[in-house]
Amino acid sequence: MSEIEFEKVKAVLDAASVPYAVLDHAAVVSSEDAAKATGAPLGQRLKCMLVKFVRNGKDFFVMVNLPADKRLDLKKVKTVLQAQDAKLGSKDDVLQQTGCEFGAVPPVGHAAKLAVIVDLSIFKPESVEFSAGLKTKSIRLKSADFRAALKKM
Predict the structure, then answer these.
(1) Cβ neighbour number for residue 40 with a 10 Å cutoff
(2) Cα–Cα distance between 12 and 41 in angstroms, integer?
(3) How many Cβ atoms from other residues are within 10 Å of residue 41's Cβ?
(4) Using an 8 Å Cβ cutoff, are 132 and 8 in contact?
(5) What DSSP assignment string belongs to 70-96?
């Protein structure tokens, strides 16, 4: 979308004092495209998905981070959140909540303050990659460093 979201992602990682690399690549629209562009295995990339859920009659949003080679189980998310309903956020929801377009959503640094759910298997590979707020940039860092950054949020 703009450099603003990209700078927010870097600021979160910088505040956690973890090293990372910024990867420039052609514009991508999916995790598969991004993995090809950076040369990373698909299971090393994060898929960051906005979920809209209903609890006690109110709508909420949560960011779910999982390996890009896995499918999101909305029934499981619904159970974990103790929600009456859970579905993927619309394109408008994604833009409003994250400040990013589909295909560029990072796991952290969103426009709105979002709770984050993490599939712990994202920490299995030695390093992890994710979209950095722009369709032309990704970030790569050690999984342990990403875990440390999440704990400091």
Answers:
(1) 20
(2) 25
(3) 12
(4) no
(5) S---HHHHHHHTT-SEEEEPPHHHHHH
State residue 103's pLDDT score: 85
Sheet strands side by side (includes 85-88): 85-88, 46-55, 58-67, 115-118
Task: List all residues 6 or more positions away from 120 whose beta carbon is below 8 Å from its beta carbon.
Answer: none
Q: Does the pLDDT value for residue 80 go beyond 70?
A: yes
User: 11-32: per-residue pLDDT in tens?
Assistant: 999 999 999 999 999 999 999 9
82 CB-contact burial (10 Å; exposed 0-12 / middle 13-18 / buried 19+): exposed
Cα-flanking dihedrals φ and ψ of residue 135, to 5°?
Answer: -70, -5
3-state secondary structure of 14: helix
Is the pTM of the predicted complex or chain greater than 0.85? yes
Tell me the Ramachandran region of residue 35: left when phi exceeds 0, alpha when psi lies from -120 to 50, beta otherwise. alpha
- Give the β-pairing of 115-118 and 58-67: parallel
